[in-house]
Amino acid sequence: MEKFTMDSFQIFSKSDILSLVNKRDGETKLGQNVVYYPHGVISTDGLKQSPARFVLLGIPEDIGVRANYGIGGAHTAWRPALKTLLNLQQNQFLKGQDLLVLGEFNIPANNTTDINELRKTVAEIDDLVYPIIQAIVAAGKVPIVIGGGHNNCYPIIKGTSQALKTTVNVLNIDAHTDLRNTDEGRHSGNGFSTALEEGFLEQYRMLGVHQNYLSEAQQQFISENSAVKAFYFDDLLAYQQDLNVAAQILLNGVKQPLALEIDLDSICGVLASASTPSGFSLNEIRQLLLQLQKNFTYLHICEGAYQLNNGRKDETIGKTIAYLVSDFMKSS
């Protein structure tokens, strides 16, 4: 099995970024003004030199999803999202100078159906991802990470925790808890349970979990762990609870550092391995982002797909993710 190294990350040059921008006379696109990283090696000192507050990077892989018996395709969302984001208009509401487009992980395709091999590879991806996140956060920047499977929450939390030398608190907007047994080996369903077990995650808050997909073991884990709380999607429906109010209730007493995770399978109609006909609308999540006004340590958007391995496509996935990223930047 191929071992990943730091060389598995491609740093985008200015020409790499501009090649994705559709220029138009009389207009300035975001990609024409974003910041690029001019050094050959990613380092905290190098990142500190950038004037941008946010650092964008992609993890185009679906190994963690398939290691969790899901449908592959999560690796296809990153590039459409990047291109759409770079072609947003530069204006008084959104400025490219605030965003450093760092690059993407080069994770070789692994087409095996051997679950154990896939889970070993996910653990290798963990070791590839967390040092770069650590360097970004240590530089005082805010990572914006587009995946990829939700397995990557673990190395992102780990890198953030190690950079700040403290535990991290997380708000996860998700239809699932991702608290599966860590003894299974790494996959997209146990990123948060792994982060809790390893001591990198302290307060874990879940917004929008579907009761129909909550196992008895996960329910018991939540009830027995005071650091883990969920606001169920079913209760939001039953009591017509305002989403922002529900988020504030969940976050009451939760201190910094606080990070934000958005699993796109929580949004109705978005293509993902676990796509849902019942969930939040995109506008509800956009409204929540614009209202929360929290100083989030990072944003991780995951599980979406442009095309799944079963052939289904979502032509709007790039725009969906670009809306969420731009809203996050505007509200932070």
Structure description:
There is one protein chain. The protein is an alpha/beta fold. The chain is 35% helix and 16% strand. Helix 4 (78-86) packs across helix 12 and helix 11 runs parallel beside helix 12 (317-331). The longest helix has 24 residues, at 115-138. It is globular and about 55 Å long.
Descriptive tags:
9-stranded mixed β-sheet; 16% strand; Arginase, Chain A; 332 residues; alpha/beta; 9 strands
The CATH topology is given as: Arginase, Chain A
CATH architecture descriptor text: 3-Layer(aba) Sandwich
Radius of gyration: 19 Å
Distance between the termini: 41 Å
CATH class type = Alpha Beta
For the record, the count of structural domains works out to: 1
Name of the CATH superfamily: Ureohydrolase domain
Helix content: 25-40%
How much strand content do the residues show?
15-25%
Instruction: Work out the oligomeric state of the chains in this entry.
Output: single chain
The whole-number mean of residue pLDDT values reads 96
Number of strands: 9
Count helical runs: 12
Record the strand order, biggest sheet: 1-3-2-4-9-8-5-6-7
Major beta sheet summary: 9 strands, mixed
Order of helices and strands: EHHEHHEHEHEHEHEHHEHEH
List unreliable stretches of 5+ residues. none
Question: What form results from the Cα inertia axes?
Answer: globular
Going by helix content, strand content and strand pairing, the class is alpha/beta
